[in-house]
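Page 47, continued from p. 46.
Same chain as before, 287 aa.
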Amino acid sequence: MNYRHHYHAGNFADVMKHVLLVQLVRALQKKEKGFLYLDTHAGRGSYDLAAAATGDTHARAPEWPEGVGRLWEGGAIPEAVADYVAQVRAFDRSQGNVGATPRFYPGSPMLVSLLARAQERLVFCERQPDEVKVLRDRFQFSDGVQSREADGYGAVRAVLPPLEKRALVLIDPPFEAQDEWAQIVGTVKDGLRRLPGGVFAVWYPLTERAKVDRFFMELRRLALPPTLAVELIVNPPAAKMIGCGLLIVNPPWKFADEAAETVEFLAKVLAQGRGARGDLIWVVAEK
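Result:
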């Protein structure tokens, strides 16, 4: 596996994914009862944005200035986006940054750990040994957190159903494997069989529309519960990756309304070309 997320940390895709992730956690926390959070492709948990400018063999342009960098000064932003920015700022400062621009960025494991209550349980899975080592070091003294060197797809089968009877599962693969889409479909199927009411969030890149449409078609064959796709397009059509999406199976009550406001705002702020927009697609409509 060649993917290293620190080159992309804090970019537009991270911003979109993490704003919505914060919204999902907040929505589930409206109930007092805790839940399991499972991160299938956790990475190292947090990232030094200074490293984003260093490639394996040569310098490279960091991506965070076109992502979290555009939100750093705050201003008139929706409540959900402001919540996300506040969490990132607090983490950045906690790591010692006193500069005017962000330096330390929380990945999804760190971000959720910052939001988690005592009654939440967090399981982070990562296959790359060096990433797992960093992940374990960061959370070794954190109660209710387990970091596993494991195939995240298999972990869904291993940990569901949880004792909590509630779960939020983030499936955020690097999309390097030829059968990545099929693995996701199979994992969602397994997860729903074990926990029909679980919330499953799947991040995906927007490169070829045909691939995403086939993905939706395969999902519909599973007789899914209500399933929403939130998509953000920031680049012109000629770009290799024009945007990204987050598919949410069993979205919490009123989540779609909040997500619509979020993605509409992000499309304006994070646009990198004409035609930037945010879309909501009901893959399986609410009844």
